[in-house]
Amino acid sequence: MHDKPLSKLAGHLLRRLPDASHPTRHRVGPDTFGLEEEKVLRFAEDRLDPAEEPRLAEEVAEVLPLGWSLSPRGKERLHTVTEHLGGERQLLEWLDRHPGLPRLTARLVALMGALDRYSDDAEVVEALRSSRAEDPFPAGLENILPPGTSEETLSDISYRIDELLFERHTQDATRVALATTDWLRNAAQRSASSSAGISEMRDLMTHLHKDISEADAAA
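The structure assignment produced for this chain is given below.
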């Protein structure tokens, strides 16, 4: 996986909190299919059989979306795995080494981190407004985007991808993600601005589209 997307994730992975505009819904808690304590402890002590590690990676990928809704016990187990690996970025790199759901989840989380960050970039938001003036509802996002574009638009998409992953609609989450990277890349290419932020977004979305497509094809 490209290093650049992962480098944008500090502070976005395990500490992402529900926004006030997204009221918490009743859900089946992820702990019902969550991390096995005994397996987590053996992993933290470097005693886990290598043959069991892919399954642990799958379990982590299953609980990672909307991790703020985990029970305290679930959060503690996820924290144990993360700390053993060296931190949030290393957790994603570890997931990315395991094909299937772990790798796909890592790359979707990388996109979500980027979307959250670009929500605060006024030039990016303006580029998206200009793009939607020409094409109000980009392909694949017709039922995702609201009529207007604001500072909340990208974080809303990020939340929707998160939600679809949590509900185990992985293919739907992937489709939304790929449509989003296409939209942002095209918006950056058409933007009148030549700022570093717009150029960075274009390159980052190109990388992420490729990464997510490859992970999905192998899942």
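Interim note for the steering committee: Residues 35 and 166 are 15 Å apart (CA to CA). The two ends are 15 Å apart (CA to CA).
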